[in-house]
Amino acid sequence: MAQFEILSGVCVPVCTPFDPSGETVDETKFLDHIDVMIDAGVDIILVCGGTGEFAYLRPEEKRRMTEIAGKHVEGRARYLVQTSAINTADTIENTKHAEDNGADAVMVLPPYFEGPDLEGVYYHYEYLAESTRAPIMVYNIPAASGIDIDANFFSRLLEIDNVQYIKDSTGDLIRIQELLATDGKVFNGGDPITFQALLAGCPGYVWGAVNFLPQEAVMLFDLVQRGDLKQANSLWQKILPSQLFIWTHVYNASVKAAANLRNFALGDCRKPLQPLNEELTAELKTALAPLDQVNLDTQTAA
């Protein structure tokens, strides 16, 4: 397995803001939001991810966002692009484009929607790796892709030269620990087990909620790294209610609603995703309320 500079820390899959019609990406808000994330200390900016609504973005929009974000990050954080496509050729094309625009690594789903068996999945990553120098983060979210990359299969994928990372979004701590027993680097993607995954040994997380709690996310990571687990757990208890909410409701709509409530002003999702109704918004406000007790200046949770 080739050695690359190791990715670690807080990775935000950046939300995609749209204009009021939902038909056009608001590039100014998009880049401003990236600045807010970097200013908060986020280590890795990921564009065109699940929380960026990549499934609803047009191909030309994804290319444009990859280009402008790559220029805008300008080495202030590590830069990742999610380059998945249903077929291998398009995935390779997307990945080469990301690499040409400064991506430090790419995150790639297995082929989804009536996808292949695991032999076809292996071929997909193997052929992609032969076509790019970019390190590859495997994206495991079986609830969406229909393919589950378990520890045994991930160990096999790690034999491919560029494959070094996995983002696991099962939300299963047992799975996280099984993956950590491989030689790969495991980024947690299951929001409600973020704290526990760090304690288990994950070097970082790809966490959609960072869009609405960037400083808290950075603080949590730093506290765990320092070994201040009592304070980290106190902070996590303030974060957890919002994570349980977004994990059990329409995810992207919930993340954007939380961001809007916390003055990040990201607007609504692209249709057909609907904004939260008044009842759910009230529940979300209650779930977010404990975050008001976090003292960001002193890194304490009251």
Task: Give an account of the 3D structure.
The protein has 302 residues and is of the alpha/beta class. The protein has one domain: Alpha-Beta Barrel (TIM Barrel). 45% of the residues lie in helices and 13% in strands. It has an eight-stranded parallel beta barrel with strand order 1-2-3-4-5-6-7-8, surrounded by six helices. A two-stranded antiparallel ribbon has the order 9-10. Helix 1 links the parallel strand 1 and strand 2. Helix 3 packs parallel to helix 4. The termini are far apart. The model has no long low-confidence stretch (mean pLDDT 95).
- Based on secondary structure, the structural category is alpha/beta
Helix coverage percent: 40-55%
Enumerate the spans where pLDDT stays under 50 for 5 or more consecutive residues.
Answer: none
- The number of distinct helices, counting runs of at least 4 residues, comes to 12
Tally the structural domains: 1
In the CATH scheme, the class would be Alpha Beta
CATH architecture: Alpha-Beta Barrel
Percent of residues in beta strands: 5-15%
- SSE order, one letter for each helix or strand: EHEHEHEHEHHEHEHEHHHHEE
Mean pLDDT score: 95
Q: Order of strands side by side in the largest beta sheet?
A: 1-2-3-4-5-6-7-8
State Rg.
Answer: 18 Å
CATH topology: TIM Barrel
Task: State the end-to-end CA separation.
Answer: 45 Å
Report on the biggest sheet: 8 strands, parallel, barrel
